[in-house]
Structure formats: structure tokens, C-alpha cells
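Hi support team,

I submitted a single chain yesterday and got back a structure, but I'm not sure I'm reading the C-alpha cell output correctly. Could someone confirm the output below corresponds to the sequence I sent? I've pasted both exactly as they appear in my results page.

Thanks,
R.
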Amino acid sequence: MALVIVVQSESQDILLAENDSLSMNDSLDKKVLKPINGALLDHEVEWLNWVSLQHCVTSDTALLNIRDFAEDEIPSLDTAELKQRMSLLNAASPMDLSWNPVVHSRIGFYSSKRRKHLGTMLGRAPAYFPIFEEALDRHDLPMELKYLPVVESGLNPTARSHAGARGLWQFMYATAKYQGLRIDSYIDERRDPYRSSEAACAFLSKLYKTYGDWYLALAAYNAGSGNVNRAIRRSGGKRSFWEIRFYLPRETRNYVPAFMAVVYLMEYHAEHNIYPINIQPPHALLDTVTVTEVLRFDQISQAAGIKQSDVAHLNPMYRLDVIPATVEHWPLVLPSAKIPAFLALQDSVSNFKPDLTPDIIFVQEPVTYRVKSGDVLGKIADRYGVSVRQLREWNDLSGSFIRIGQKLLIHANPKSY
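Hi R., thanks for writing in. Yes, this is the structure output for that exact sequence:
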């Protein structure tokens, strides 16, 4: 039976036809391309098999290299073309995506110096963009904001900044708690694609309502509202990012231009000879089951027939490779094809090396500790049975300095005090 798929090109639909003699494991460069006006596959099983093998995205330059670039060629930037393409993006967005020299410079930098990085982002996009788009649509926000985590975290759920921000959307601890995200020794919802995206959309909505300008909102997202308000005052009350730009911290001055450059290059990557690298399985091939008891990732790996590292990759919010389903029930994300095997053994999963499963006791609300004379982080950490690293993370501390009277949030084990 022939395998058929339609690929959209600039000029026409293209039929991807696979002869009976070719197996589904053949790469796309072995396919035969023929222009048609046909439809996609009718047979669901064959379609899912093809999607599973090809991940809905291809890195085959024979299909993507629409301008016959040499393999390592870096196309020159044509200002007229950039202006035209950005005017098209601008016309389709509530955000201002019109060309300017600063953004042009960032496009030049990324398209020449960050090509591999952008290719990696294109490869990760199928796993995360559907999650972002659903949340943005629910909050009625511009879809272009799905590119913000590319700038923030490189689409890495476990990314951590030097200042202590975490996750795809790079929330600081205090901001994350303010947005209702849970952070403790076992759970960090900043690292969960679904929950962090919901929190990011709510936070961005609040910032936009405050400033009435998307780029001022993004500047506040990056540097904090205090820095933006200060820049507005120093500029004499200007209300445009470009007018207050040089009153902002250095990093934030380049933040919005970087975002605009990423929006452009993710949309027009092929025109700059940039293609997906290391394509991740798409969100559509994953599903969720509810876990009702404490399970370790190695137990899940054993039952589902999947590598433990893959379980960790798909479930990044669990910090210690354990799902702490004590009183609460928690989601487990697995490839759809692996869920039947897991469900078949669900009642016996916890029987695999049960002695390694930790006893988990949660404190739902953190303890507030006021620093006294003579206190140091090590002494406080010992008293509450936590680590200095945890104290720093919970309180956005970059070093060990604390002052008398300062309040510290501590997620302590109740046995410790």
C-alpha cells in the first residue's frame, strides 16, 4: 500500500508518495515528490506510524532548502526583503513587528552566530509550541509570545539562570509563588510546561494591563516593573519601549530586539538556510495518566518500557525523580504508545525495589523565619533540616549575605522544628 502525505510548499501542494517497495523506516530523502491536489492519509494507524517515525517535522534540507543554498552558506541580509517580511508579520500580529535598525542588527547576529541554536529551537518546537499556543489562546494573548521561552530558556524546562530563575518561562522564586506555582523539595512547577505556561500567560496579561504596551510588558517581565517604572520617570514620562530603552538595564535594552529577531527567524528560518536539528517527538504523541501513589522514575521506566532519562525529560517538574503522590494525585506524561503497558502493570509498579521509595512528608506552606543577630545561612539550614542551596533558591539569594530582620521562606520538614 502506498504511503501518501501532503507537504505545503511556497507555490503548490506536494505529494509525498512512498512505493510499496519502501518501508516506513526509509528517510524522507528516498521519497518521490509529485505535485498533486490530493488529501492526507485516511488510515489512522498508518498516519500515526508515520508521525511517530518522522515526528511531524523533517530536517531534510532537500525539502527545506527552497533556495538551493550551499550547506554552510550564510545568506546575506537584504534590507528590503527583511522590511517586506517583517511588514507581513506585523500585519498579522497585535504586536509591533515592524523593521528597525536595532532589530536588523539582532537578526544579523542570530542568523550568523546562533544558527545551530536556532536549529535546535526549531527541533524542540513541536514538543512545546502546542502547549504555549493553547495557553495563549485561552488568555487571548498574541501567538507570537510562544517565542518568548526561546529567548528565556532555549526551550529547556530545567534551565536555570545565574540569578536563580527556572523553567521554560524563567520565573524567579518569589514571582512564581505570587503566580500560584508550587515549589518545594519534590515539586517545581516552574519546570512544568503546562502549569508554567498558564502562570506566564496570567502574569503577561497583568503586565500588559499595567502598561498598555507589549514591549513595556516584556521589559517588565525581564527586569521587573520597578526598573521599567524608573525608566519611564527618567525619560520624562515616555510610554514606548524604544523611547525609554536607554534608561533600562543593559540586558533589558537588548531583550525586546532579541525577541523580535527570534520571531522573525523562527518564521523565516529557511530563507536564512537554518533548519531543524535533533527533532523532538511532538506534543500530539504524548498523553497523561494520573498517579495515585509515590512512584520513582526507575519504577515507571521498568513498567512502561522506556528509559529513565526519557521519563525525566517528559516530567521535568519532579525534582528528585520521584512522583510524590501522597495525599494529592499527580500527572505522569508518557508517549501514548507506552501508556497501555504502564496501565497493565500499574497495580504492581510500586513493588519494584520498594525499599528505595522515600517517605515523603510535605509542609504545604513555608515557614517564615526572621534573621537574628549571629545567624548565618548554614546555621539556619541546619536548624530546619534543609540545605544552604535550598535557602538561596527559595529566597532568590545569589550569595550568602543576609541581614538582621530579613525574612526567609523555608520549606522545612516538620520533624525539624
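A quick pointer for reading it: The domain at 367-416 is CATH 3.10.350.10 (Membrane-bound Lytic Murein Transglycosylase D; Chain A). Let us know if anything else looks off.

Best,
Support desk
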